[in-house]
Write a structure and sequence with these properties.
Elements lengths: L1 E2 L2 E8 L7 H8 L25 H10 L8 E3 L1 E6 L4 E5 L1 E4 L10 H9 L7 E4 L12 E2 L5 H18 L4 E5 L3 H6 L6 E11 L6 H6 L3 H14 L5 E5 L6 H19 L6 H10 L4 E8 L2 E10 L3 E9 L6 H17 L3 E6 L10 E11 L2 H26 L20
Helix pairs in contact: 2-9, 7-10, 8-9
Length: 414
């Protein structure tokens, strides 16, 4: 294959250990080709997205949180120049189930299997267990980014066929990358999350001042009540992330994960590894009472975004979840001068706390022509319903005056 005048070879790599971290991150930590310049637009991609970094993805592999026994087998696509220099990568996994993706296709799998087909294995290009938007077809700076991106997307189709997979999926990719995928091969899907946008606030009170009076009073009371039983909050990062702290947080994570989906995805070693490899890009919000931690949430720091991920507790207290996960995230994002908070998947209760609906995107390449038509028909009906849902949510935002929506114009999505 070639990109412009430069010959490019595509290969599949079964472990991040086989790719130097500097080479991977030269691709993953560059902003890539962008459309638009709106800091509130979900088409703007964090140039230092922690979830596609070598440190994060290799910690998943090295800890055994991903691997053949988990149903996530690494099959990363790598584009190399004639001189062996890495020009692009795509974090990719061969999957035997649909767990840990946050883009739900279980109904598709059931439908194909009821019709006598086989949905698994499938290919997934993403950051495992992480519903955070970021680049997926990662070109290195200095390469012909659009050409490399095209070769990687074509390579995923070829890899799908080579591995006899039913489909290839690219999830939580940015709008610009999503729109560049060829519609002849890739079906487009949208969904909704809830993000908080920093409109130049210097303090949390500046944000509160933008809210309607009744909503502002409710949040002040909620924060006061959350800490009203002698609870204090610590924010821990860097050298504060000791193994004892990770022990406490892992206990919280296991409690929540066991109740939500039976078997939590991440193991204890994973947290030790990210503590070693990216401690300065992590902030744990930990709630303390009577000298011990009782609850916590993990956040990852990007170039312009704070990403809220996992939460758990060993004691239930009114509103503590909202304080630790949402209000503290806003506080910390303002303190760091970050543009937004992405608080993970689902949860329309976030709207009352100043988070706004924002679209997320995925792309799906189905091999079987008849099944592809059925999925395309499903998506044609689903997309306008999602857009209507978001528009209805806009009416429930707690702001005193209308704000510019964090949702980008998705006229092409409908």
């Amino acid at each position: 294959m070639s990109a412009g005048a430069v010959a490019i070879r595509l290969k599949t790599v079964l472990s991040l250990a086989d790719i130097p971290a500097a080479d991977w991150d030269r691709c993953s930590q560059w902003a890539g080709p962008q459309d638009g310049n709106d800091p509130e637009s979900t088409s703007q991609v964090d140039a230092a997205n922690p979830f596609i970094s070598h440190a994060y993805l290799s910690a998943l592999e090295d800890s055994g949180s991903v691997g053949a026994r988990t149903g996530w087998t690494s099959a990363h696509l790598v584009a190399e120049g004639a001189d062996g220099r890495i020009l692009g990568v795509a974090p990719t996994y061969l999957k035997s189930h649909s767990q840990g993706e946050y883009v739900f296709d279980h109904a598709w799998a059931d439908a194909l299997q009821r019709a006598g087909g086989r949905y698994y294995p499938k290919l997934q290009t993403t950051s495992p267990f992480t519903p955070a938007t970021g680049r997926r077809l990662l070109a290195a700076p200095g390469a012909d980014a659009l050409a490399v991106e095209k070769l990687l997307s074509d390579g995923l189709l070829a890899l799908r066929n080579e591995m006899n997979a039913s489909s290839a999926h690219i999830t939580f990719l940015p709008e610009a990358e999503w729109l560049r995928l060829e519609p002849a091969h890739w079906l487009r899907r949208i969904d909704v999350q809830y993000h908080w946008f920093n409109r130049g606030y210097a303090h949390y009170d500046d944000f509160l001042a933008r809210l309607a009076s009744r909503k502002r009073k409710a949040l002040k009371r909620e924060r006061r009540d959350a800490l009203g039983t002698g609870i204090s909050i610590d924010r821990l990062s860097g050298s504060d992330l000791t193994e004892a702290v990770w022990d406490d947080f892992f206990a919280f994570y296991m409690d929540t994960g066991s109740r939500k989906w039976g078997r939590p995805y991440l193991n204890r070693r994973f947290f030790s590894l990210i503590g070693e490899r990216m401690a300065n890009r992590i902030v744990l919000v930990m709630a303390r009472r009577d000298g011990r931690y009782i609850a916590g949430a993990i956040n990852f720091i990007g170039a312009d975004t704070l990403y809220g991920r996992h939460w758990g507790c060993r004691e239930d207290h009114p509103f503590l979840h909202f304080e630790v996960c949402y209000h503290q995230a806003i506080d910390h994002a303002i303190a760091l001068g970050l543009a937004r908070v992405e608080a993970g998947a689902q949860g329309d209760h976030k709207i009352a706390r100043g988070y706004e609906p924002a679209l997320t995107r995925s792309a799906h390449a189905i091999a079987h022509p008849g099944f592809r038509r059925a999925v395309a028909d499903f998506l044609d009906h689903e997309r306008p319903q999602i857009v209507q849902l978001v528009e209805a949510m806009q009416a429930d935002l707690p702001f005193a005056q209308p704000v510019k929506s964090g949702m980008t114009d998705d006229s092409d999505a409908t």
